[in-house]
Amino acid sequence: MAEEKKGRSSRGGQKVQSKRSTPLKESKTGATKQAKAQTKGVRSEIKGLVLMGFAILALIGMAGVETGIWGSIISGIFSYGFGLGGWVVALWVLYNGWCWLYRGSLAAITRKGLLYTGVLFVVLVQLVLWKVTSGDELSTTTLAENGGVVGGLLGSLFRSLVGDIGGILLSAIIGIACVLGITKLSLREGLHKAKDKASVGLEIAQEKATETASAIREQVHEWQEEWREERRKAYDREKDTRYPKTEDSSNEIEVETDAVIETQEAISRATAVEVSGANVVDVESMGPSESMIDTEELEAMEPSKDVTIMQPLMEDYEDEETYIPEPHIREDEVVTSTSEVESVVAPQMVDSAEEAAEDTSGEIYTTDVDEEPHVTEVFTELEPITPPSFLQTTNYVGSLVEVPTIETTKEDTAAVAVNTDGVARPRTIEKPYQYPPLTMLSQGKSNPVTSEEVAHNAVLLEETLDNFGITAKVVNATQGPTVTRYELEPAKGTKVSRIMGLQDDLKMSLAAVDIRMEAPIPGKSAVGIEIPNKNVSSVHLRDVLDCEEFQQASGGIPVGLGKDIADMPVITDLAKMPHLLVAGSTGSGKSVCVNTLISSILFSRKPDEVKLILVDPKMVELSVYNGIPHLMLPVVTDMNKAAAVLRWAVREMDARYMTLATAGVRNVASYNKQNPTKSMPLILIIIDELADLMMTNPDVEESIDRLAAKARAAGIHMVLATQRPSVDVITGKIKANVPSRIAFTVATQIDSRTILDQAGAERLLGRGDMLFNPIGANKPIRIQGAFISDEEVEELIAFVKGQGQPEYDEVMMAETDKGAESSDAVGSDEEQDELLERAVQIVLEQRSASASILQRRLRVGFSRAGRLIDTMQDMKIIGPPTNSSKGRDILMGEDQIRELYFPNFTVD
Question: Could you say which of 3.30.200.20, 3.40.50.150, 3.40.50.300, 3.10.20.30 is the CATH number of the domain covering 541-821?
């Protein structure tokens, strides 16, 4: 029994020992596996390096570099095996070697990889079928230059089966099929889209053809009207066959009764025509060569069938030829009253006429000249004029009254005015300003969103949110010209942040270009999701301005921006903003928006109500507006002159405030009500590229800050446009004083926050899509900006220029020219020198040169501090900036500065 127990115990001990030895075996096994894995990894890395070496050697050899025997063999495998496709194969081998080195395995064989291989083989076959003649597919002289052995075999196979043309078509079809498999494109959808685009283009072409035909018809009608008018003006009654002609022996002119009345009216008007003082000639001093009318005694005549008009000649000059052209009477001339006529025809002239009537009564004088004078008569439809009292006497014989000759009637008689004392004085006639008609602008084409598209997008939104565990329902959809806003009402207890976090997922589900969320919609318990429309409706400026709100706008500077998300026109008043910032990337619609603002002003305000100052650093955007009467000075393109203009605007602002304080009013509108005859126009300053202006002339920042802070009550407003919305351009002071802003498409969310203080502009669609954040608004409004073409702008400017010439402010132009010529753009030379010397003192005291130190110590802006640093660098007082933390080196000491620049320079 004892032995059995011992045996059992010994066996049990062995079992215990075997169990205890199991971890050691496992550790040894793990170490062995790890060693094998390391060895395998090293082997795969070596294989990858070798494979990459082969590929690189082949690429070098195919490039024409001498690589020896082995290199020639390796490169020959690729070049002769695949021809020109050997480059692609070598790169694929290089990629596999990299995968073997990096991941430990070759690149996986996928469906897309096989399709790419098929495309490569198709290209090789095409090369052979196009370039190699039949029978030379495997010729060693052409393998490397065409499709190689693989291309030659496949090419000869295609050529033997279907011939050259069939092989080309068949291989092309195979290649197209591979490309479709790679890109997942659909030929059916492409054809349908092409058909839709073609139909839309055909409709547009038909509309344009119709518009062109109507325009041609209107132009032809205008030409016909002008031709009729010219014929009417060139009408010669004496040559008209409908009137009886006189015999050559007597040369008497017989006309109908209304011709007599017409002549009397012409004489009456001739006596009332306003003439200049140079054309008034005394009756006694008139000579035979001067044009005059010796009117015959006007007897009380009863209307008869034929009346003969006799033209008396003075006895002293009966041998001389005297012609009496009818005066040229324009329709727009104002006929003076009877009293003015009596003042022109002096009483002594009437007496002398009565005396002459006694001597010449009953005599008939005729001309001795057979030749008929060439006198152009202009017939106008004139109201009957009652002749003066001294012409209504029965026995009156007209005296010699001077009238303008043919040459003098060419001058504008409206340039002079005859007063009651008979003295001609110059005068100016102000033509009433006519607003341009909206008909010169074209209307946009509406492409409403279909109900099927709205329903489809609503279902997709609900299903996508449901897949992520969010229950929501689309309760409303508002259709705009560019986007449609879907109002999503989530279930109770749903966090808005969860929906906002799914913005990219919703975008992918809807296959949209981009979407924008507004959570929540102001005044509603719903989340707004704005999805682009498939068919975008164009918004033209006429569609915006042709509304009651714009037509009945009184006061201020009303402008049309575009249409909002509900397809309603957006009209705003620039005078209430009071300043506007327009920012966006290049090509987003910023320049079109500026043109829209200016065009809106031309359609709604007269030159004496709103004056424009246009600053165009790019020199080509706003120069087209030169010559319109709304300008205070020509479009400013010189940067130094722009700085001087802004400094003038600051002085004008101060002067206006002094005038308002003297009158006891608070703003320009109240002042104009009290003083309508001395009203001050509103001034709008438009700067098209603020970033370029501040970069070339940093001094304008101070003037812009002052105008933005104080110019509202003085009636001076600004529109600042820039394509670089960075913090060094849109500074904190500008953002604080310019609360109204427009943001177009920007690149990043940071730029959107710089403009609007919130994100959103980075998700706009471009082409006029904007976010408008007016003063007092809680959230920005999405607007599709109005469009006006260059042709429409040119037509509008031509119409406005026809209303009158611009009256430039000579004082302002002189001051700006003088300011532009000055080299000091900040202040006077004394002020700059003082600041520079003090800045040098601070730099030597601190033993450091930086713009931030000068800003704090001198209390100046960053631009001026940076300019002082640059000036000290040019003077060699400090060195250039370094990349180290030590800052700029100080190159001069106190003695050198005192000797070279400032004689009284000292350092405290």
Answer: 3.40.50.300
